[in-house]
Amino acid sequence: MPTISRDIKIGNILARVDLSNPVFRYAGNPILTAHEVNKVWNNPKYKVVTVHNAGITQHNNKTVMLFRSHLRTGISVIGIATSSNGITNWEIEPEPVIKPCNANNMFAKGVNRHELIENESGGIEDPRISHIDGTYYITYSAYHGLVKDRVRVSLITTPDFKSFVRYGPLLLSDMRNVVIFPLKIKNRYVALFRPNGHSSGHTGGIFKEIKIGYSDSIKSGQWQLLNEPIMRQQGVPSAFSDKIGPGATPFLTPHGWISIFHGVRSTMDGNPYVLGVALHNRDNPELVKVSAIPILFPSAADCKVNETDYVHVPNVVFTCGATCKKDGTVFIYYGGNDTVMNIAVTHYDVLAALCTEYQQNPLTGQFLYNI
Fold first, then answer.
1. Is residue 296 exposed (0-12), middle (13-18) or buried (19+ Cβ within 10 Å)?
2. Superfamily, domain 5-360
3. Taking CA 347 as the corner, what is the angle to CA 343 and CA 351, rounded to the nearest 5 degrees?
4. Tens of pLDDT, residues 278-293
5. What CA–CA distance (Å, rounded) separates 75 from 46?
6. Chain centroid offset of residue 318 CA
7. What is the DSSP track for 188-209?
8. CA torsion angle for 139, 140, 144, 149 (degrees, to 10)?
């Protein structure tokens, strides 16, 4: 039986992670909720009922969190919170920084403003951040206000989280999740894509595929996706059997690129979301090893709320951002029940070992080890 364990620290708390317990939930969860945001966003039109699915990066020696929040209307907006230690004392900007766009926003040259405004009128969700050569590239899901299930992953850039330039959709096709690798690989930009379909249950079909794409320029909107996915589920009973999608921006380790993704297995009582982990080859990320064992299942600890608080979607853990420390410690920022923001901590040695010791076939989901 393979054994590996690592001692890790989050704040003043020491913990151990291993292949049986690959992540450790921070005892102080949740780290940010609608209550803290509503103390700052005073305008009644900005009162929110959730804080979740946040992109994460570092800027000016602080952790920057781009969090998604549901307004009471049901439309999502994106706010900013910063912290010196990435755990506590989050400082929240006085109002949402990225809202469904209007004519007063900054647009890149050549962008069809009318089309982009229309395409974002249903709300914007789930930012991911990639820091490349001094620029922060933010991908986010933009929902059409009138066309059901019409979602285009779009791009915003910023040098400082003060000014933002919109570039519009990365592709002129429905996408739900896109994460960009934070380094060029063989002189090309690389990203992971999860197409969006029109299934009433939002599972099955292309919801079970992750594709890889390449571009010579992120801002161009010209991405070439490989025809075949690099990850697919084909009905093998597993925690990921009915839906998968890229989650946090991949991060580079001595083992290769680690990406944390989400997976769903439909049940008679809904679609619980778990977090999984994949290990991509450093120089050819199409080569991937996928752990058949999830790293995090949803629990009551992931959505601690007051008795009268709104809870959006039960049994969900979902990540859009993680940070990797020099000592191998990994902070995973994740939403609980699409309602509150949490942190879990792990180590890249443990994540990589899960991918090598307990693999599934990346294109079928079949286990490659004996149970």
1. buried
2. Glycosyl hydrolase domain; family 43 (2.115.10.20)
3. 100
4. 999 999 999 999 999 9
5. 10
6. 7
7. BEEEEEEE----TTS-SGGGGE
8. 110
